[in-house]
Amino acid sequence: DVQLQASGGGLVQPGGSLRLSCAASGFTLGSYAIAWFRQAPGKERERVAQIRFVDGSTWYLDSVKGRFTISRDNTQNMVYLQMNSLKPEDTAVYYCAAAVLGRPYDYWGQGTLVTVSS
User: Fold this and answer.
1) In Å, what is the CA distance from 99 to each residue of 65, 96, 106?
2) What's the CA gap between 32 and 112, in Å, rounded?
3) Which residues fall within 8 angstroms of residue 26, CB to CB, at 6 or more apart?
4) Which residues contact 103 (CB under 8 A, 6 or more apart)?
5) Which of the four pLDDT bands, split at 50, 70 and 90, describes residue 81?
6) CA nearest 77: which of 26, 40, 35?
7) What is the pLDDT of residues 39-52, one digit of tens each?
């Protein structure tokens, strides 16, 4: 049973920081990529960041480069998204998802809400 659990969302002020966590269970992550997606009201879902567990390589959406950092903990099958310098346009439900390398993202968590507002 593959499960992904996202947590850490909340209400933060513009310019603030938040760290999201994704706990993965039911499979080993050595051959997987884990990504954070987000979806804001009225907008399409977009991929925010990705990390490959085999080598730790990362990818970021242009609009979050320099502000967000994705990292992994192989021992505990955890993935984190450190979000700094948050902007109101970062407000969205954030989801973590897993994919076998070279395949679509087939496994999804239920998401955690991030609201950036003063």
Assistant:
1) 22, 10, 6
2) 22
3) 1, 2, 3
4) none
5) very high
6) 26
7) 999 999 999 999 99
